[in-house]
Every structure is written in C-alpha cells, then in structure tokens.
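Sample pair:
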Amino acid sequence: MQTSKDTGIFSWRVRVYYEDTDAVGVVFYANYLKFMERARTEWLRSLGFEQDALRERQGVLFAVRRAALDYLQPARFNDLLRITTAVVRCGRASLDFRQEVLREADTTLCCRGEVRVACVDAATLRPYRIPDNLLAEIANVL
C-alpha cells in the first residue's frame, strides 16, 4: 500500500493466522508489536529504502527505543487487519510513529500505539543521524 498524500498515513494489511493467536483464540498481545514492525518496514520500503541496504550502504539501523500500546478490542484468527503508520515527529536521530491496528471488516480499532525508533550506527549501536536522503523522503510524506 501507499502513504496517503492527504493524511501522511501509510496503510498495510495482514491476515491473522492461527500461529498469531493465544490459547483463547485472540491475537497474542506481543504479536501486535510484530504487525506494527512489519508495517514500519513496509512504510520504509514504500519510500524506496530497504533496511538491509541501509545497513550495508549507509551503516545505519533502526531500533525501537520506546513502545506504548493500548489494547482495545481483540483480533481473532483469520481477521484481516489494517495497520496504519504515521510519523508524528522526525528528529535528527529518531522517529516517532503513531500506529493503529484495525479490523478491516468493521474498522474496529483493536490496538493503538506510539513507537519511537532510534537511528543507530550499525557497528557501534550508538545514536546516529538519520541519512539526509531518507530525511528528504520522509519530509515528502509529512
């Protein structure tokens, strides 16, 4: 999917598989973090950046620095979910995202979160400035 030019919100879909659920048949709480991670990866890919290429060519990685989630309604096996991702703050070495997980069938908000990712030097894992070419692409969608 693509980022909406009007809202700056990127949207990506994922199906809930049996392996994503817990003993009561709902999505295991930690898997929402996985869905959000995948959506941020797809957002970055939609801007033309692959994480392995950023590591190899520019020597940078992105690491989650902080995550805060609210679990609102359960998602269940075979639900089609839409994960939305929006940059709410772009710093010199970090990005703050607002993300939501919605059930596609009825747009029920299942989970929402705020995630801060830090740009780090791949060799030292110390904070590192986000590459200018990536910052320019992010600015285009904000």
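The radius of gyration is 16 Å.
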